[in-house]
Amino acid sequence: MKQRAAFGSRSFRRYRRGVTKTRRVGVVGAGQLARMMIEASADCGVQVVVLASTNDDSAVSLASECKLGAATSYEALSDLAASCEFLTFDHELVDLEVLARLEREGVVLRPSPRSLAYSVDKAAQREYFAQLGMPLPDFLVLREPDPAAVASFLQAHEGRAVVKLATGGYDGRGVFFADSPATATQLITDIAPSGTIVLEERLELIAEVSQMVVRGVDGAIETYPLVTTVQARGMCNEVRYPTTLAAALVDQAEGLTRHIAKAVELVGVMAVEYFVTEAGLVVNELALRPHNSGHWTIEACATSQFANHLLAVSGQPLGPTTPLVEAAVMVNVVGADRPGSLEAARAVGGAHVHDYGKSWRPGRKLGHVTVVGDDPAALRVTAWKSAHAYGTQSQESPT
Ligand code: ADP
């Protein structure tokens, strides 16, 4: 087989220029994921057009073309589609019926609305994956009130439950924990008016891990290595490559991730988030787009998640996902009570600082820092030093 030029190299760019035209990809949403897609787009022969909800959105200042409108608006999406060959997404707050209508009219959506349903709707994911025999927490979907089913579910799990809104939640919003049947029942009553609920058993988590995968229009699949994600206040604050999980669990993840990518007919990148429990891996949720647990791939892998997403959705061959380093640590910068110093964060040797260009607000994701090398403990020290200088809310530090 003919060897391809290394992705991102000068010869790769020459190869691209010789054989391909620029493809136009419309991104629904203009947050930091769209911003990092724009940063990756030149090497992929792609021009990105973003649909922003406001002029303040993270990707707007970098976009060469930007439209304003709501991600749920048929008119705004039709207008975006009219100037692009493919549409893709930076978030899940979309209206699947609007997307299905656009698809019927011939708009090329990647991933398709049918695939997206498994990340937009936690109930649809749980029900489909149960049919496929995936390892899941015990769960009950409540589309209507069903006090008898709730009572027996809670009795079986001694009230240790998680109550989730099926749609609209992210970064822990829409997820509520209960330790007794009374609290769980009250939570269900309180959030039922907001829509369908997924009631889950509350598992004892040993750790949380995530795996990115990319699938092309021809069905080719490449996985990235499994990573450990560390959560604080329902939000991921640190990602570590490699994981320290046993090889058997890493293999289990690889098999499940590939199976899921095919089962949801993925096109583009996807994150599969897993819980690590005594009984092995349990599927948590999917994101059919670049994901926070894949930001480390920008510095650490032969092709970043953002480049591979654009290559896949624009119908091009995928880039290699091979890691180029022994270890990597990514720390999110979440706005603290006072703004920090971006310059001081950048001054920390070895820290790759990504600023999302957002105005500072406590609790807001403002950027991330990645450090690569070969000593995971040292990388964590450097990443957290830089993130603290930047002014992150999270106080966690390497121990
Ligand atoms: P979001 O869509 O907001 O990311 P998740 O469903 O991933 O919500 O839940 C957020 C966090 O809540 C998870 O990362 C995990 O720490 C915890 N969690 C969710 N479901 C369970 C469960 N069934 N058992 C134990 N912890 C859970």
Give the radius of gyration: 21 Å
Q: Give the terminus-to-terminus CA distance.
A: 48 Å
CATH architectural name of the largest domain: 2-Layer Sandwich
Number of helices: 13
Using the coordinates shown, work out and report the CATH topology of the largest domain: D-amino Acid Aminotransferase, Chain A, domain 1
Major pleated sheet? 9 strands, antiparallel
Tell me the CATH superfamily of the largest domain: ATP-grasp fold, B domain
Low-confidence stretches: none
Shape descriptor reads globular
Order of helices and strands: HEHEEHEHHHEHEEHEEEEEHEEHHEHEEH
Listed once per kind, the bound small molecules are: adenosine-5'-diphosphate
User: How many distinct folded domains?
Assistant: 3
Q: Which class do the helix and strand fractions yield?
A: alpha+beta
Quote the beta fraction.
25-35%
* Fraction of residues in helix: 25-40%
Topology:
Layout: H1 10-19, E1 23-28, H2 32-41, E2 46-52, E3 65-68, H3 74-82, E4 86-89, H4 96-104, H5 113-120, H6 122-131, E5 139-142, H7 147-156, E6 161-165, E7 175-178, H8 181-191, E8 197-201, E9 207-215, E10 221-223, E11 227-232, E12 235-241, H9 247-263, E13 268-277, E14 280-287, H10 297-300, H11 305-313, E15 327-334, H12 342-347, E16 352-355, E17 365-373, H13 376-390
Parallel strand pairs: 1-2, 1-4, 2-3
Antiparallel strand pairs: 5-8, 6-7, 6-8, 9-10, 9-11, 9-13, 11-12, 12-15, 13-14, 15-17, 16-17
The structure holds adenosine-5'-diphosphate.
